Amino acid sequence: MALCKKDYPVVKKPFHVPELRAVADVLNNGLKAHFSEVLVEVVDCPDLTQAPFHLANKGLNGNPNLLDIGGPSFLIPLVDRTKVYDLKDMAEISGNKPAFLIGAGAGPFNHLKTNCEGIFNINVGDEIKQESRIGMLNRETGSPMELKLNNSITEFGLLGNLYSSQGKEGKVLKVHAVKRIGTIDFIASIRSVLSEAYKSQDGIVGLGGTFIIKKGSAKLHIMPDFSDTPIEDDETLNKWLQFFNMSSPLVAVGTLVTGTYNMDLREQHFHMFSDHGNAGHYHIDTTPDVVEYLGYFNVANHIFRVDQPKTDAAFGKD
Q: What pTM was estimated for this model as a whole?
């Protein structure tokens, strides 16, 4: 059973919201240090329900907000199994109806009876349109597998980073990048450029959206079932996580922020799914010479910090 909304605190903070055209100019210039070919434009959002994205609603507009729920402190050093949330509650908190929610988090371990990766992609209105996926390990082989959730499962566990909108069509950022020449991943590249450009602002900038790796492959992880022994540092965490090289096309959903507001915000978090059984937590492409990214993003108005752990996570946010 998920926690009731009254059982956890919610703090709302405003973002600095630059014009999309200004953000596009910043990224067009800054991403040239990270990719050999870059084009960032402000465009009408394509219909994201169509291939290759297969999202639960068409667009990224209409009261765009981010939610940061729980956190790694509920997973490590040992899991807190009481931390179960509901995407329908997150829709209400975000102030949208209907609410189109996309993002990354831990999956519904209470239903699947194992730890897993949640790739959230759902429209919550008078009816539920559920396109969310799960990345998990095959219990018998230990190999990665992907499952699609049905409409009846809207819960998730421990932590989540969601972009909420009304799914409306409208202007968005289109980011096309080819051949990585920098040392950090696609999302970290965007985040670092925006952080530098807007560091003098009073507020931080938040983005959410989706991207696809059209060519190449990427390093992803899938969490195995919960550890019985404490995970005390990055070394033991990386021994516990299961890493895989997964092939394109891979579709990602998630969020990024340029600061934390001293609220232990996760600065970036994207999970990936596919039509060929690959799914998990995105780290970085593994074929920089051939990789091709295409993404659509929007700037968010507010961050809702939901059920912030009392102790900030010292690691486990990569």
A: 0.96
